[in-house]
Amino acid sequence: MELWTLTHSHPRNAMTVAQRAEAAGWDGMLVVDSQNLAADSYVALAMAASVTQRLGLGTGVTNCATRLPAVSASAAAAVQDVSNGRMVLGIGRGDSALAHLGRAPARFAQFERYVDVLQRYLRGEAVPFSDLRMDDSVARPVASLDLADHPSDSRIRWIKPDGLKKVPVEVAATGPRVIGMAARLADRVMFTLGAVPERISWGIETARAARRDAGLDPAEVKFGAYVNLVCHPDRATARALVRGGLTTFARFSVMHGSVAGPVSDSDRATMNALHDGYDMRAHTRADSPQAGLLDDDFVDRFAIAGPPDYCIERLRELEALGMERIAISGPTAGADVDAARAAMSLLDAELIPALR
User: Fold this and answer.
1) Burial class (CB in 10 A: 0-12, 13-18, 19+), 300
2) Cα–Cα distance for residue pair 53/108, rounded to 1 Å
3) What gap in Å lies between CA 356 and CA 351, rounded to an integer?
4) pTM score, whole prediction
5) Domain ranges of the chain
6) CA–CA separation, 350 vs 352, rounded Å?
7) Do 224 and 190 contact (CB within 8 A), yes or no?
8) What residues have CB less than 8 Å from 153, skipping those under 6 apart?
9) Which CATH code fits 2-133+158-354?
10) What is the per-residue pLDDT across 198-248, written as a single tens digit (0 to 9) for each?
């Protein structure tokens, strides 16, 4: 099972985190793509590639609204080139990136079309203009210019099918429709269901059923998960450090008002309270109002927070279910800085070596 760390996309910080992660034995590093809250993710990844040799690199996650698919594909392929094949493109429907543009997450149909077109670009294929869905209110068709000649389709000319290794696409997935789409179109399904074995099992079966229904081999789909994890000898401190990030990931399961996946009545009540009380201006913060909505029992089920042996045991449970990659989100802004540093050091010193 691969372990990837999740960080912000400030280019210089990404370089520092990448060097530390590679030295500690992490398999990869993902950066958040949220243009109003952080610097450009692809610049950060290219900078990280310049100071590492082995570390996997990727977006965790970009979205299907703020960049055209051709732009995302070309940027990801550029990082793939400079990193010698270490790039992964993680994508979702958008959260804070769209909220700060006054929008909710992209509609499912748009997301599905985007992933399909993105994959074709990354394979070096031609995409018909009709599949790009650019509205005439943005730009008229090129044919309206009466040129002597013009492109008849859209292809990223510098991506050659027999050249650069294709960038894998991973879809962050919570609800059944997105899980099913990811199972059919993506190279990996990355669950955002919490560290709850029953919910992960539900996600796996949902993905495999979607592949069977599409006439695809259910055994060929790859799985991973985003997990909020803080390693600290004091359980109370670990919970306090993980709460802010957990509010964000737990909210994904109730973002549109109904809870996705199996949950107990008490967890459903907590998620509904999170839905109603989430302050996007304090997104991910440990000192946010929504962090106070998550009681210890909820944190213990949906996150992994505690001493190294406990964290290792919980991760092994997820590995046994078939998770091949875990993207770890640790302490977030607003948490105790010294405790957060100690927790990250403990991850590097004890958890990573134990899981090699």
Assistant:
1) middle
2) 37
3) 9
4) 0.97
5) 2-133+158-354
6) 6
7) yes
8) 126, 127, 128, 129
9) 3.20.20.30
10) 999 999 999 999 999 999 999 999 999 999 999 999 999 999 999 999 999
